[in-house]
Amino acid sequence: MGGNTITRVDLAEAVYQRVGLSRTESADLVEMVLDLIGERIVAGESVKISSFGSFLVRDKNERIGRNPKTGEEVPITPRRVMVFKPSNVLKDAVLEGNRKLNAKK
């Protein structure tokens, strides 16, 4: 897992190395989990992953927005959006990682 972005391939490789499934089985497992999460979110359900966070679906009402270039008022239609709310465990881990980075400087 290199770089700043973790991909499906990176997740499958991590499962392969840590769990011991074949590479194909690991990739299939990652795909199944991500597909299941996606299906539940599309259906309007929340998905909670303990000690990680929750994916929530929210309905936004119609409102008036403004075109930043022209200043013209434009209606923004009602829509459904997905938000991620990290768990306190994940928040604490991020803060701790930040503290360690700052301590090295």
Q: Characterize the largest beta sheet: strand count, sense, and whether it forms a barrel.
A: 3 strands, antiparallel
Strand order of the largest sheet: 1-2-5
Category by helix and strand content: alpha+beta
Q: List segments where confidence is low: pLDDT < 50 over at least 5 consecutive residues.
A: none
Number of strands: 5
Strand content: 25-35%
Silhouette: extended
Compressed to H and E, one letter per element, the order equals: HHEEEEEH
Radius of gyration: 19 Å
- The first-to-last residue Cα distance is 24 Å
Topology:
Blueprint lengths: L7 H12 L3 H20 L4 E3 L3 E8 L2 E4 L6 E4 L2 E8 L1 H17 L1
Antiparallel strand pairs: 1-2, 2-5, 3-4
Helix pairs in contact: 1-2
Characterise the protein shown here.
With 105 residues, the chain is an alpha+beta fold. The protein is 47% helix and 26% strand. The chain has three helices and five strands; from the N terminus they run H-H-E-E-E-E-E-H. The chain has helices spanning 8-19, 23-42, 88-104, and strands at 47-49, 53-60, 63-66, 73-76, 79-86. The strands form two sheets. The protein has a three-stranded antiparallel sheet with strand order 1-2-5. Strands 3-4 form a two-stranded antiparallel ribbon. A hairpin with a 3-residue loop joins strand 1 (47-49) and strand 2. The model has no long low-confidence stretch (mean pLDDT 92).
